[in-house]
Amino acid sequence: MAYHLLQRDQRGAERLAHALSHALETIRHCEKCNSFTEVEVCDLCLSPKRDAHVLCVVETPADMMMMEQAHCYRGMYFVLMGRLSPLDGIGPREIHLDRLVRRATDGIVQEVILATNFTVEGEATAHYISELLTPRGIKVTRIARGLPVGGELEHVDSGTLAQAVLERRNVA
Amino acid sequence: MAYHLLQRDQRGAERLAHALSHALETIRHCEKCNSFTEVEVCDLCLSPKRDAHVLCVVETPADMMMMEQAHCYRGMYFVLMGRLSPLDGIGPREIHLDRLVRRATDGIVQEVILATNFTVEGEATAHYISELLTPRGIKVTRIARGLPVGGELEHVDSGTLAQAVLERRNVA
Ligand SMILES: [Zn+2]
Ligand SMILES: [Zn+2]
């Protein structure tokens, strides 16, 4: 891309370089949710319309965006900016779990929803966080595994069907 | 297929015709699970290794096979041989819901797991059955909706993510 810009659009390349260096100077992590922001605390964390009693933990800002697009959640977020991955040298310190614990024990948060991915690393991260938070008296929940909306038994893999049976819900 | 057989393999066509008419004469519905069988009560329903306290309701014999292949379930089945579909004239009588109620209220079954598909018709069928069984004191459960095993937030549709949040589970 850089090569293309330099050859075809030198003015554009200058503007892009300027925007990038500006971003690198001003982008920081929100004090509350740890996502990217240009201010100390981001708009979402400051919004009085959000439910401050629920904190949803996601791996990336993209996952936070997916949650917002699903219009299913009105609480707060904590963005790990990664996941536990011992083989890559990413431990609890690298994903700021100390900051998550401080955030979740502010006395206002009552429930932490673990919305990390259902990959091996996402599951390990969720497990590690629940071990940190449950002894501190915080209700910890995990988003559900199962069949997709509109899904048919014939079209899901065995592992997912097995989880859907294992995690079956009471019908009121 | 019939045309091909008649032209190329007349002996094969005769054998197939014989097998089919034999099947039509001998195949019947199992007295207990309503699936196809050649005897009064099928092998699975007679097996002492299955847990008679749990009854799983599926739409088709194929769905029952999916459940068996997932190795997640050791109870009994009831196969609806369809689903409620008012527009196609398929009501409670056509899918033998009276027989399901009799089967579920045998005094041994304690839980009925609704494993109909998460399609509109499968959901309506599950709802209708739960309305029939819960007043009769039977615990009714529904297989879970949510993210697939191995699934990532970025790769599921909004509806499924919303359900996964709505149906989140307590972490022990
Ligand atoms: Zn924030
Ligand atoms: Zn049977």
From TrEMBL, chains A, B:
A zinc finger (C4-type) spans 30-45. Signal peptide: none annotated. Coiled coil: none annotated. One of its GO terms (biological process) is DNA recombination. It holds the Pfam family RecR_C. May play a role in DNA repair. It seems to be involved in an RecBC-independent recombinational process of DNA repair. It may act with RecF and RecO. PANTHER family: RECOMBINATION PROTEIN RECR. This is Recombination protein RecR. It comes from Sulfurimicrobium lacus. The lineage of its organism: Bacteria, Pseudomonadati, Pseudomonadota, Betaproteobacteria, Nitrosomonadales. The gene is recR.
